[in-house]
Amino acid sequence: MRKESHPLVKLAKDAIKEYIKNRRIIKPPDDLAEEMKGQAGVFVSLKKSGQLRGCIGTFAPTAKNIAEEVIHNAISAATRDPRFQPVGLSELEEIDYSVDVLTEPEKIAGPEGLDPKRYGVIVKCGIRKGLLLPDIEGVDTVEEQIDIARSKAGIYEDEPVELYRFEVKRYK
Question: Which of 25, 90, 160, 165 lies in disulfide reach of 119, CB 3.0 to 4.6 Å?
Answer without folding.
Answer: 165
